[in-house]
Amino acid sequence: MNIREQFLQNYLVHLKGAIPRELCDEWVGDYFEHTGIDESAPASWPDDLNGFSKTTRTVPMAEASPQAWEAICELLGGEECIDERTRVFANGFNLNANRGADQPWEEPSAQSPGWHKDGWFFRHFLDSPEQALLCLVIWRDIEAQSGGTFYAPDSVPLICRELLEHPEGLKHNHGWGRLIEQCRDFREMTAKAGDVIILHPYMLHAASQNPSGRIRFMNNKVVSLKEPMRFQRSDGDYTPLEASILQALGVDELDFEITGQRKRSEDFSRLVEEEV
User: Fold this and answer.
1) What is the DSSP code (8-state) at residue 271?
2) Average pLDDT, the chain
3) What contacts 67, CB < 8 A, 6 or more positions away?
4) Cα 264 from chain centroid (whole Å)
5) What is the DSSP letter of 4?
6) pLDDT digits (tens, 9 = 90+) for 123-171
7) Cα separations in angstroms, 104 against 101, 136, 145, 213, 214
8) What is the largest CA-CA distance in the chain?
9) Which domains does the chain have, with CATH numbers?
10) Half-sphere exposure of 72 (CA within 13 A, CB side)
11) How far apart are CA 102 and CA 211, in angstroms?
């Protein structure tokens, strides 16, 4: 099954071993060296270890992982369509050291807390270019019950319909998570160091517990388009991302126009919108 078929069938593509293990080991080792954290002594870990670490290194995606870069370009219509600012991997890790470790393990479900749609730096429209793909970049093995992201593939059509019904645009804190009540397909991400999991931008996901005693190292990598998506092309040559949204809505094409104003923070920081 090729990349396009995988994405249309599953709303994700799991690329195994896309980043060299040596680079993963180097960057994780560098983190421990610079922070002085002793992973073998959890009692000594700082309280703020669940969250984002400081970014000190970047590498072009095409250099670090030609496989991932090729897949991303295929899904979005080519390298020329991708915002240059989002073409790198970085070591600003999303860490999960011990979230919920003091509670009994709960499988992913509609009752899991924190279901959300990414994209806090822009106003959301069906054709938004800002969050074209969400890539989970795995820097260390994630076994079961070790902090792997929860995700719900059947949430994609729900989000698509929600956005279609609001051409005026929706705020990033719209309350997307309430749609999880309509989902039935709940999964826990497991992966090996070097894997890159490309998620549909409209997939609800949530943080999970990590009682494993090992720190999870991952990135939530945003890939942006330069221009909004198009759902009405005379030649029918839709990118896999555009085709997935049309498929989710059950249409072959869509005459879609926004009625609100596009807003975004150019530095990718949280967008502050006036209450409406």
Assistant:
1) P
2) 96
3) 15, 18, 196
4) 18
5) H
6) 999 999 999 999 999 999 999 999 999 999 999 999 999 999 999 999 9
7) 8, 26, 11, 15, 17
8) 61
9) 3-249 (2.60.120)
10) 34
11) 7
Which residue's structure tokens are 């421990």? 32
Mean pLDDT in residue range 75-96: 97
At residue 146, what is the residue type? S
Q: Quick check: 129 and 137 in contact, CB under 8 A?
A: no
What's at 119, amino acid-wise? G
Instruction: List the beta bridge partners of residue 218.
Output: 94, 138
Contact status, residue 183 vs residue 54, Cβ threshold 8 Å: no
Given a cut of 70, is residue 274 above it in pLDDT? no
* List of residues 6+ apart from 2 with CB closer than 8 A: none
Give the mean model confidence (pLDDT) for residues 176-200.
98
pLDDT in tens, 197-241: 999 999 999 999 999 999 999 999 999 999 999 999 999 999 999
* Entry field: residues in the chain: 276
Q: Distance (Å, rounded) from C-alpha 149 to C-alpha 95?
A: 11
Q: Is the dihedral of CA 207, 213, 216, 217 positive or negative?
A: positive
- Check if the beta carbon of residue 183 is closer than 8 Å to that of residue 11: no
Give me the residue label for tokens 């991708």: 82
pTM: 0.95
